[in-house]
Specification:
alpha/beta, Rossmann fold, 12 helices, 46% helix
Amino acid sequence: MATVMVGKSEIFYEWLGERRHCGPVLVPVNTLISDSRILRELLQPNEDIPAILLIDNTNRGRSTYTDEPISLASQVEEIHAVIEAEQVAAPVWMGLSSVNSLAYRAAAAIPSSGLVFVSPIFTFGLHRRVRIARDLLLQSLNDTSFRQFMQLMSLIAHGSHYLETDRFGAMSRLKVLRECYTPEQFAIVLRQSFFPEPDDERIFRSVSCPVLAVCGAEEAIEPLRLLHQVLSYLPKPRLVTLDCGHQVMIEAKDELMAHLRLFMKGLGVRQLAHA
């Protein structure tokens, strides 16, 4: 466990596997319901992914919580501070769901080895509608609305059978994470989540590293349409579609990890070829 100070925030981070690995290092960007406490259970180092660096931005995991506005640019600065402190020369950013918006901004701002989109949701024209939904939930935030919110997310991702059977075991993970947050912390997280800023085509076009995008075939139509739009801005991206819904990390973890290992291995070979 280690921390760096960035402005007023103490940023928590930890390594899984080889610390300060000289090759590509997987750096997952955490989400509303998947900070480092959950990601460390979902991701494990292996011979193709020997190093994973988990970073909790402000208002995530064990880092500082504040009700002051937090921009995506300031979150990139926090990530960059950790990357510099740990001398990571070849970060590979992995975004999950909505925080792919932070992952591609990191890839554009920091010299990067690769970028991985997992179950990406991009906003563009959806930005205002999503913020309205978030604000409505905040108006009635209490223990009951929190449970209903988690159930709604599960229904969106998997359908009604998911809540009845919990066949992927994710509800237990959500319960653990829920117990990690105080109601005050969760209110802060919720206020500053759900696409605080619209996506930017110009930033997408400034990404120059290899890109792997993995999504579920049962993903909603709108996210898939926007993903294809985003991929048209990037140089030679690779798209993989798996037989699952939105929660690729849970529903199709083995298939996802196989593609991720292949991608990371290729980045390592590419780095050696350019050494």
